[in-house]
Amino acid sequence: MTQTTYNFPKGFLWGGATAANQLEGAYLEDGKGMNLADVMPGGKVRLKVISEPGFDFKIDKEKYVYPNHDGIDFYHRYKEDIALFAEMGFKTYRMSIAWSRIFPNGDESEPNEKGLAFYDRVFDELKKYDIEPVVTISHYEIPLHLITEYGGWRNRKVIEFFEHYATTLFKHYKNKVKYWLTFNEINGATHMPILGLGFSPESEETKLQDSFQGLHHQFVASALAVKAGHEIIPESQIGCMLVYVPTYSYDSNPENVMHALQEERLFNNYCGDVQVRGEYPAFANRFFKENDITLDIKEGDLELLKEGTVDFISLSYYMSRTEKKNKTPEEIGQGNLIGGVKNPFLNASDWGWEIDPTGLRIGLNQLYDRYQKPLFIVENGLGAYDKVEEDGSINDDYRIDYLREHIQAMGEAIEDGVELMGYTPWGCIDLVSASTGEMSKRYGFIYVDKQDDGTGTLDRKKKKSFHWYKEVIETNGKKL
């Protein structure tokens, strides 16, 4: 890239992103019920434990630790944290609401008023600094009761519980929140249904059928929420949220190219087509046929999908993916929810996630070419080990380099003609990692003194990247 100065749109929404279950803590305070994240163990065993068939959704403190129970105590420290966001100059803050704070079991008729009041206080604090909230309605924390009693999103009844929950939020916060996202990284559900759909697959044979049926229920629920949101808050903007992973063929072998195309369409485009275009893509028919998947689609569902399309597309971007039709175990790389093979042209993070800024430019162009809808990058960042120096400084130049290169890629995409609304790097303050439950996998501009073993003062400290990002925002991306 030769261009060094980029023209980000006036009013571009610079900010940061978090999720309730990863930073709030206070997991049983003020009437909050248990949710999925509360029973997920911490440490590198997390994904292995919850991915095995038959996960029992119970807490076993003799075997595991549960860092999400305490998070970074945002529940009590939100004023301090929001003041730091404001000091950086945030225009927006992407956050989520914990469903089980509002409806502890998920199926109640009346909400928990203390839960509603907490988010009232958060939104009021954001407003004090003119920070626009972007709220994810469901972010990997379905109420535990809806899992154990209903089977998660496999059960169509969960649609009505979600609609009631979303409608309650719209009515209560209609004067405080304009931007909403329905489901976090909805397309990741087929790879990790426990996170997105709230069920543990009984076997590999049933996983696909149950996952795609659960996704259909979420599509209907999302469409109902979009319709309700537009009616209750006419000026609202409601988006879908995809984990976007551009997929490259390992080489020019047509078989690998075709395989990469099929993988990309199914992962990147399937959910987007339904939520943005309002209909199932044609390529799904063959996939369903070849995998013996039959969706139970009720009368009126397809019409509802057409009526409840989203206003914009939000996405997380961490890496690209390289695919090869016949890959050996040694060739498989690590990644966010999905793998692929190692790309010889890319370096990787401490956790094996390949770093590919150009992939972000590619992905933004692909999405905008396909949908012609505004795009919003609501997650992007580098999980890394940070060292506190003897003088208290944290010199995370590696994070600055990573973010700079991705912001440059965004600038190039805007020059390409992509309509980009904003950018909220993930984990703007250190929090519990979703994939590993670790605190040592740090993303933030703000260091939080909490360690993997639970020790620490929880004191907040500005990293070098804090001051760098503040200048990026001040100059609207001109000084990187």
From TrEMBL:
Gene Ontology cellular-component terms listed: cytosol
Active site feature: E379 (nucleophile)
Alphabetically ordered keywords of this record: Glycosidase, Hydrolase
Pfam families xrefs: Glyco_hydro_1
Gene Ontology BP terms: carbohydrate catabolic process
Domain of life: Bacteria
Keyword match Transcription regulation: no
GO molecular function: beta-glucosidase activity
InterPro entries associated with the record: GH, GH_1_N_CS, Glyco_hydro_1, Glyco_hydro_1_AS
Family that this chain belongs to: Belongs to the glycosyl hydrolase 1 family.
Record-linked NCBIfam families: PRK09593.1, PRK09852.1
Protein name (database record): 6-phospho-beta-glucosidase
